[in-house]
Every structure is written in structure tokens, then in C-alpha cells.
Design a protein that fits this description.
The structure is a single chain. With 423 residues, the chain is mainly alpha-helical. The protein has a single domain (2-241, 252-411), classed as Ammonium transporter fold. 70% of the residues lie in helices and 0% in strands. The protein has helices at residues 2-45, 51-78, 99-102, 114-135, 142-163, 169-172, 181-199, 220-239, 248-280, 285-300, 308-331, 340-358, 364-392, 399-404, 406-411. The longest helix has 44 residues, at 2-45.
Length: 423
């Protein structure tokens, strides 16, 4: 009987391990699908003449992010001393096997495969880089963008990731960010802002006397599809961050995360629509789409602690903020074609600050420290990298190429060819 009980317990342990690993991997796949969402959203919000290039960027940045995080990013983020500031850079100077030095064969986590953790983390890195893509759209050189992607995904992001999820000094200080409102989204926005400031606005966006001219996107159905794909993928983004599913408490927690994530997105849409109508007397679709994303970003820092009603309010504040932020950045002549800096940066900061409202273990002081350190590091480091790229190979396409569209100049093909000829 005793042997039977032991065998049953061992089987149960293996089953829970398999369930939690499978859940983690499926959530990672959902987050990977967000890459399609970003691609569709950005392709819909840029002009037709720049669509092929934006799609190329999204495919290529995902591949670069996966490769750089494999080569060195994951090691930097998770192999360093607890409470530290400077990460372990041994993998860059000869540490054997990179990721394998962290994910050793027999050292898997007690309730899921450590390899599934790597897969889940790598798609987060790609999300941070995707945020940059839309903000610099329609006037940045493709290869300059991809060169920056190498540095952001291989070094800049992993350093602040070590400070937080990797057990560094921000983690020790009590900073709390469940799934990455600050660590992923605000960081991506900080990198985007640095690039936009050096890049400048698109031609024709702003007048000499402070006028702001709208530059409509080519395909709003595509942008709407992209938003729904991101909304779906976010259940993996936040739900997977619970890490575990195989007992009653964790299953209930995952369900709460899903409900709160959805509620915040809905609140964001409603608030953005109302705010836009109050300001423009129109139900602006693009603001509604950004409102959904803002609600999702806002709840990402803590989708577990609040009630569904509180989550709706947190998302609604994000939805209102994003409309005001987009308008304000335009007044400051900061040209962001898709509103990425507002959605992920301004609302990402709000999401981090909202955590102590429902989580007694978090403090506003620790949250503010995290915002300042993450934004400051990513912005300054990115500004330096962008400046080096600008001084060497350049970051902006020629005025002629911008006018004719970067699809032909950078990729040699159009996404929407009007005419074809057969020989």
C-alpha cells in the first residue's frame, strides 16, 4: 500500500509538471502571436507606401530578438547576483554555452521546465522591440532599425530585466511589476522616444505655426484586426505570468487574471471613446483601438490583486490618458505614427503606479524608483546607441525616399501594387 501511495504521488507530481509546462508554453505561443498583432496594427496605421517595410521590420525584429536573447540576453538577465546593479557579463567574455549555463539539464524548476521559462521570456523581449517599430515608422532606415534591435534585445532590455525579474536591486527594493507594464512596455516606449527625438517628424506632419496635420493610415480594418490579435495575445502575456495552473488556488488566480485583463481592455476602449468624443466631437476609431491597448498595458503590472470592477477603472484611466497623451505629444511635435509612446510609455507608468492601490505589499516609493530607473536607463542607453548609428550609417531615409515611400527604397516591392504587367 505504501509503495502504491508513493507511485501515485510520483505520477501526480509528473502530471502537474507536465500541465504547468504545457500551460507556460501555450501562453508563450499566445504572446508570440502578439507579433502578428503588432504587425497588423502598424501596417494599418501607416500609409500604403510604407507597409512592406513595416512588415519586414516586424518579422526581422522578432527573429533578432529571439537570437540575441538566446546568445546573451537571458544569461545577463538571470545569471547575476541578487540585489546587484551590474549584471554578470561572463557570457560575453567566454562563459560556456550561454543560455545552457543558466538552464542546466538537471536544474529545471520544481513545477515546470526551465526551457519553457526561456521561451516565455524571449517573446516578451520581442514585444518590447515591437513597440519601437511603430513609433519610428515611415522615415527610419530599415537596417539602422535592425542594428538597434540587436543592442536593445541583447543588452539594454536584459539589464533592466535583471534589476527586476532577475532579482537585482529593484527587486530587493520592493518594486512590483507582475507582467511588465514598466519592464516591457515602458522600456520599449523609452527606447522609442529616444529614437523619435533624434529622428524627427515625418515631412508634412507639422506646420510652421504649430499646426498639426493628420496623416491617416492606409487600412483601418487591418489595424482593428491587429488590436483584437493583441487583445487575445494579452491573455497569454498576463495569464502566463502566473507561472502555474495545476492546483485550485493557482487555477483560480489564472481565471482572475484573465477576467481582469479583459475588463481593463474594455474600460480602456470606453474611456478613450468618451474622451475623444468630448475633445473632437467624433468617435475616433484609432483612439478606441489605442484605448483597448492602453487598458491592457495599465492592468499588466498587477492583473491579479484588483477586483474586476477596479480593473475596469484602471483600464479606463489608461484609456483616457492615452488620448490626452497623444494630443500632447503632437503639440510638442513628437511624431509617433501609431501612438506607441503614449500607449506603452505614459500608460505603462500609470500601470506601475496603480499597483499599490490594490496590493498592500507594494509601495509608491518602490514603484516610483522603478519607473525612474527603468525609464532612465533605457532612454539614456538607447539615445546613445541611436546617436552612434546616426553618426555612422544614418537613421533617416532621404527626403526623396520618404516622399515616394520606403517600401520601394528599402524593400524593392509594394504591399498594395496598383498595376502589374505580364511579359
Amino acid at each position: 500500500m505504501e509503495e502504491l501511495l508513493k507511485a501515485t504521488a510520483a505520477d501526480l507530481t509528473q502530471l502537474k509538471y507536465a500541465v504547468d509546462t504545457f500551460y507556460f508554453l501555450v501562453c508563450g505561443a499566445l504572446v508570440m502571436w502578439m507579433a502578428a498583432g503588432f504587425a497588423m496594427l502598424e501596417a494599418g496605421l501607416v500609409r500604403a507606401k510604407n507597409t512592406t517595410e513595416i512588415l519586414t521590420k516586424n518579422v526581422a525584429l522578432f527573429a533578432i530578438a529571439c537570437t540575441m536573447y538566446l546568445v546573451c540576453g537571458y544569461y545577463i538577465m538571470y545569471s547575476s547576483d541578487a540585489g546587484g546593479i551590474l549584471p554578470n557579463l561572463g557570457v560575453l567574455i567566454g562563459e560556456e554555452n550561454g543560455v545552457d549555463a543558466v538552464l542546466k539539464g538537471g536544474d529545471d524548476a520544481p513545477y515546470y521546465s526551465a526551457r519553457s521559462d526561456f521561451f516565455f521570456q524571449v517573446v516578451f523581449v520581442a514585444t518590447a522591440m515591437s513597440i519601437v517599430s511603430g513609433a519610428v515608422a515611415e522615415r527610419m532606415k530599415l537596417w539602422s532599425f535592425l542594428l538597434f534591435a540587436v543592442v536593445l534585445t541583447g543588452f539594454i532590455y536584459p539589464v533592466e530585466g535583471y534589476w527586476t525579474w532577475g532579482g537585482g536591486f529593484l527587486s530587493e527594493a520592493g518594486f512590483s511589476d507582475f507582467a511588465g507594464s514598466g519592464i516591457v512596455h515602458m522600456a520599449g516606449a523609452a527606447a522609442a522616444l529616444a529614437g523619435v527625438l533624434l529622428l524627427g517628424a515625418r515631412k508634412g506632419k507639422y506646420g510652421k505655426n504649430g499646426e498639426v496635420y493628420a496623416i491617416p493610415g492606409a487600412n483601418l480594418p487591418l489595424a482593428t484586426l491587429g488590436t483584437f490579435i493583441l487583445w487575445l495575445g494579452w491573455f497569454g502575456f498576463n495569464g502566463g505570468s502566473e507561472l502555474k495552473l495545476s492546483d485550485v488556488g493557482e487555477a483560480n488566480a489564472v481565471a482572475q487574471v484573465f477576467v481582469n485583463t479583459n475588463a481593463a481592455a474594455a474600460g480602456g476602449v470606453i474611456a478613450a471613446l468618451i474622451t475623444a468624443y468630448a475633445m473632437f466631437r467624433k468617435a475616433d476609431l484609432t483612439m478606441a483601438l489605442n484605448g483597448a491597448l492602453a487598458g491592457l498595458v495599465a492592468i499588466t503590472a498587477d492583473p491579479l490583486s484588483p477586483s474586476a470592477q477596479a480593473s475596469t477603472l484602471i483600464g479606463a484611466v489608461g484609456g483616457g490618458l492615452v488620448v490626452l497623451s497623444i494630443v500632447t505629444l503632437d503639440k510638442l511635435r513628437i511624431d509617433d505614427p501609431v501612438g506607441a509612446i503614449s500607449v506603452h510609455g505614459v500608460v505603462g507608468a500609470w500601470g506601475v503606479l496603480a499597483v499599490p492601490l490594490n496590493n498592500a505589499d507594494a509601495s509608491f516609493g518602490a514603484q516610483l524608483l522603478g519607473i525612474v530607473c527603468i525609464f532612465g536607463w533605457v532612454f539614456v542607453a538607447s539615445l546613445a546607441v541611436w546617436a552612434v548609428i546616426k553618426a555612422t550609417v544614418g537613421i533617416r531615409v532621404s527626403e526623396e525616399d520618404e516622399y515616394s515611400g520606403v517600401d520601394i527604397a528599402e524593400c524593392g516591392m509594394e504591399a498594395y501594387p496598383e498595376f502589374t504587367s505580364a511579359k
